[in-house]
């Protein structure tokens, strides 16, 4: 069986030498694509690199994969993660991971929070700002400290060590920065949850299962004010400590797992996701982010670190995601010729 990989590369977006920009943070490097292909090849599959450019339809027609392993992030707008899966659906091509609606709903953090609220899953109080005037009433509605983030980003894009504000002046500065850098995008203002950060990995379908819980902690720092921003993530060896399993009481472990699985199900996630929480002063987990397209960079991405620290190597992780996607289509991984299932 031939597996196609869909993805977007950092280097296709910015010329060489300019790869440091946060704008390309969500895209992959050729090393990650090589690592994924190497896993599939080791399991006896043929692979083909389809990328995620505008020639994708021709590429699929020429390469004729039987299945697509999708990690494409897309280029533009809040639907960008769903764009390649939409094309795969038009072509009736089975693929791994969540569908376009789930990918769009979770990328748009405001939409996601509305659904979380409806389902009674605790998430920090928030407001949305589209223009300056809307900042005026914020202090009547929300309590400092406040964190601001672009509404439709991931990979910590637009989130800096200065993103938490304790005063109107700081808030104005952070909002100004985002209006400039992420022009045209609403800004999410959220109450900052001072407390431990725990991310939860989920794998599988009906039923999905918890892969693990991982605490993300600032090395030698003030964990309550920790913010897992780009500067910190990029320098994780020095700045971040990952704890598996987190030392938390049973009740909290249960609440985190339960809320992660509920969110996974309610948003219609498929195959894999990583869900981020902060633990409030009330010892309650607050869901801050659902990632149905978690990073899979060897030795770097949170899900990869989490599984590795619990004894699952990179091949096993990637193969488990493929296998769970196969099961969803009723494909056994040792079947070499696949009949497409819509
Ligand atoms: N309301 C919040 N309270 C506490 N920390 C937050 C909050 N929102 C974001 N953060 C911090 O910022 C990081 C990135 O925010 P997140 O919403 O997960 O964005 P991304 O989609 O870029 O991962 C989180 O991992 C956390 O450290
Ligand atoms: Mg996050």
Can you put this structure into words, describing what you see?
The protein folds into three domains: 2-97, Rossmann fold, CATH 3.40.50.20; 125-191, 2-Layer Sandwich (Dna Ligase, domain 1); 197-292, 2-Layer Sandwich (D-amino Acid Aminotransferase, Chain A, domain 1). It is 35% helix and 19% strand. It contains 13 helices and twelve strands. It has helices spanning 10-13, 30-42, 56-63, 80-90, 100-107, 109-118, 138-141, 168-181, 230-234, 236-239, 250-266, 302-309, 314-328; strands at residues 2-6, 46-49, 67-70, 126-129, 146-150, 164-165, 187-191, 197-203, 209-218, 240-243, 272-279, 285-291. Strands 10-9-8-11-12 form a five-stranded antiparallel beta sheet, with helices on both faces. It is globular, with a radius of gyration of 20 Å. It binds adenosine-5'-diphosphate (ADP) and magnesium ion. Adenosine-5'-diphosphate binds at residues 124, 147, 149, 153-157, 159, 190, 192-193, 197, 227-228, 276, 278, 288-289.
């Amino acid at each position: 069986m031939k597996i196609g990989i869909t993805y977007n590369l950092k280097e296709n977006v910015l010329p060489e030498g300019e790869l440091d920009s946060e704008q390309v943070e969500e895209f992959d490097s050729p090393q990650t694509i090589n690592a994924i292909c190497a896993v599939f090849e080791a399991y006896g599959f043929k692979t083909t690199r389809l990328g995620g450019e505008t020639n994708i339809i021709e590429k699929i027609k020429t390469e004729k994969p039987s299945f697509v392993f999708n990690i494409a992030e897309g280029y533009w707008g809040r639907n960008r993660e769903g764009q390649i899966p939409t094309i795969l659906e038009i072509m009736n091509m089975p693929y791994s991971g969540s569908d376009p609606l789930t990918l769009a709903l979770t990328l748009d953090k405001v939409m996601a929070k509305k659904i979380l609220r409806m389902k009674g899953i605790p998430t920090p109080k928030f407001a949305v700002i589209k223009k300056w005037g809307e900042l005026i009433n914020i202090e009547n509605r929300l309590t400092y400290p406040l964190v601001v983030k672009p509404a439709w980003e991931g990979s910590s894009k637009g989130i800096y060590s200065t993103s938490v504000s304790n005063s109107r002046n700081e808030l104005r500065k952070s909002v100004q920065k985002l209006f400039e850098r992420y022009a045209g995008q609403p800004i999410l203002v959220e109450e900052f949850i001072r407390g431990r950060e725990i991310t939860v990995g989920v794998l599988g379908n009906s039923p999905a299962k918890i892969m693990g819980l991982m605490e993300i902690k600032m090395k030698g720092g003030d964990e309550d004010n920790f913010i897992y921003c780009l500067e910190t993530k990029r320098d994780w060896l020095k700045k971040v400590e990952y704890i598996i399993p987190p030392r938390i009481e049973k009740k909290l472990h249960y609440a985190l797992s339960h809320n992660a699985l509920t969110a996974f199900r309610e948003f219609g996630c498929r195959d894999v996701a990583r869900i981020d929480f902060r633990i409030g002063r009330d010892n309650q987990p607050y869901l801050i982010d659902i990632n149905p397209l978690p990073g899979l960079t060897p030795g770097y991405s949170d899900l990869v670190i989490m599984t590795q620290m619990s004894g699952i190597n990179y091949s096993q992780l990637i193969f488990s995601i493929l296998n769970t996607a196969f099961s969803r289509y009723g494909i056994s991984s040792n079947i070499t010729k696949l009949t497409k299932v819509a």
